[in-house]
Amino acid sequence: MAERQLSSGGFAWALRDGENGWSNIAEFAAEDRFDAGIDAISDDGRTAYARDPRGGNFAQLVSIDLVGGQIRTLANAAGRSIVASRSVGGNLPAIAYAIDPARRSWGSSDPALRRSLQDLSSKVEGDLDIIDTSVSGDIWLVAADQDRAGRTYFRYEREAGTVTRLFNDRPHLNAGKLLSLFPITLSARDGVTLPGYFTLPYQVAAGGDAAADQLPPAVVPVPLVVLVHGGPWARDHWGYHPIHQWLGNRGYAVMSINFRGSVGFGRAHHVRGAGEWGQAMQHDLYDAIAWAIERGYVDKDRVAFIGGSYGGYATVQALLDRQSPAACGVAVSAPVDLISLVESVPAWWASARQILNRNVGETSSAAFRETLRARSPLYSKQQIKGPLLMAHGSEDRRAYPSSIDAFARAQSAK
Question: Which residue, 290, 280, 127, 255, is CA-closest to 183?
Fold first, then answer.
């Protein structure tokens, strides 16, 4: 089985067709790239288990007959995307699948496996990840992610129901007092639901209780740092987040928002970001800040942005936008010229060019080219309204150093 690129920017799953080459058994739009995936193949090599988002907003779990090419739906997650799957015991028809809105959970259509997942969840704290299983499916290697500790690995014996702790990948953290990463959900100005995560500084978290399970009421407004993820076709997850912990320890509230265009929350949330660089995607971040200010958590005059790649772009835009609450920022590898971002894609990465055309803008259109110019910090006539630290790689071929240097010179001259 193979994945092949399509000229449309999409891709296909294909099977070997004897001596005739390859035949497509499923074709996907470019927007499906971030939700589809082949996760496991049975030990006999006859069946693959995959996530298939075609025909709906959320990815389903499917099986693929690697001989005949038939695709059969095994499970869906009722309004949420399946983000991973594991074959438990090789050829056994027991498939566990992970559902990850704010926190990762596991399910299965197999009753016995479902009981094992429930048993394991009751004995291990945190969000589980099934790393691998024995051929028989009786012994599992699992990991548990927590927000106030590193990832811990366990051996789980299904028949006996025993859990043996193996090791933690950050043992030096466990003695320290770390902060909670609270899942939050809020509404953008146009009603779009925005999931995210919020950390309060130790000094005000639940009156000093850093291990609170629920977001406590505001005590006193504090400075806020907004961490903007890159991609933008990516997402923030729950778990141990070193930057949240570091800044929270220094007295800052920290927020990570899965703005429209982020992946993992269904096709609709992802495609809402198309053509919205510097617009609705940016406004989502401002609306999240307003949410925190209105509830008394944040001092409206002390808001900073930090981000890399797309997050760097959003940071620079926030310092140029007079409607933004940003007072300062740190931007790493920020694409300050959207036209060159789209046009600099190498020929061998043609599928990425199609994705950028759809989501950032089509530069062959004179009207949209002018729109991209207007949304590019490099060509802005505005002066940044606060301190901005920029960093980039000297050989970066996506966020050109020459463009970043030109932006810095232009700002220094204003």
Answer: 255
What sign has the CA pseudo-torsion 268, 270, 274, 277?
A: positive
For 216, the 3-state DSSP assignment is: coil
Residue 275 · residue 361 · CB < 8 Å: yes
Summarised one tens digit per residue, pLDDT across range 160-197 is 999 999 999 999 886 568 899 999 999 999 999 999 99
d(CA 273, CA 226): 19
Is 0.85 topped by the overall pTM?
yes
- Cβ pair 80, 59 in contact under 8 A: no
How far, in Å, CA of 145 to CA of 307, rounded?
Answer: 24
Cα–Cα distances in Å, from 297 out to 198, 224, 252, 291?
A: 10, 9, 10, 9
- State the angle between helix axes of 280-294 and 310-320 in degrees (0 to 180), rounded to the nearest 10: 70
Give me the amino acid identity at 187: S
Which of 357, 315, 350 lies closest to 332, judged by CA?
315
Average pLDDT, the chain: 90
Residue 147 is classified by DSSP as: S
Residue with tokens 């992610």: 145
- The pair of three-digit structure tokens given for residue 384, joined into one six-digit string: 């940044």
Collapsing DSSP to helix, strand or coil, 403 comes out as helix
In angstroms, the CA 217 to CA 332 distance is 33
The pLDDT confidence band at residue 88, using thresholds 50, 70 and 90, is: confident
Looking up tokens 């495609």, which residue turns up?
271
Q: Is there a contact between 319 and 388 (Cβ–Cβ < 8 Å)?
A: yes
